[in-house]
């Protein structure tokens, strides 16, 4: 029997594990943006049961975990399996300027959207300056 060796097999396996494949992506896709006094993070989670989504914040680390399962049962016959299944996890490191105590989450049309207000201490504010004793003027800080 002839065995053929592939010197790049281990490199390919590690690359698939780190970067993912078309059938099993390494992470969930996300858009993040700031609009006024709020920061938004939108995660693509199509076909995920909302009950399987877990969102936690510990210190300044936001972790989103979701699971997509295949239909199971005695009469289920798998004909094609191209959609990624399993558990997906994504972590974001949030700045101290966000108020994670007031984080809001919603799931609609396969998109998990997190809305995090900017902390009051991080918002621009006016500072009163005294000059020549009693004269006062305000500037933006």
Automatic annotation (TrEMBL):
Give the CDD domains listed for this entry: ACD_sHsps-like
InterPro entries annotated for this entry? Answer: A-crystallin/Hsp20_dom (IPR002068), HSP20-like_chaperone (IPR008978), Small_HSP (IPR031107)
Q: Indicate the segments forming the SHSP domain, all copies.
A: 21-132
Q: Which SUPFAM superfamilies match?
A: HSP20-like chaperones
Q: What Gene3D superfamilies does the database record attribute to this sequence? A: 2.60.40.790
Superkingdom per UniProt: Bacteria
Identify its protein family: Belongs to the small heat shock protein (HSP20) family.
Q: What name goes with this protein?
A: Hsp20/alpha crystallin family protein
Q: Give the species.
A: Micromonospora parva
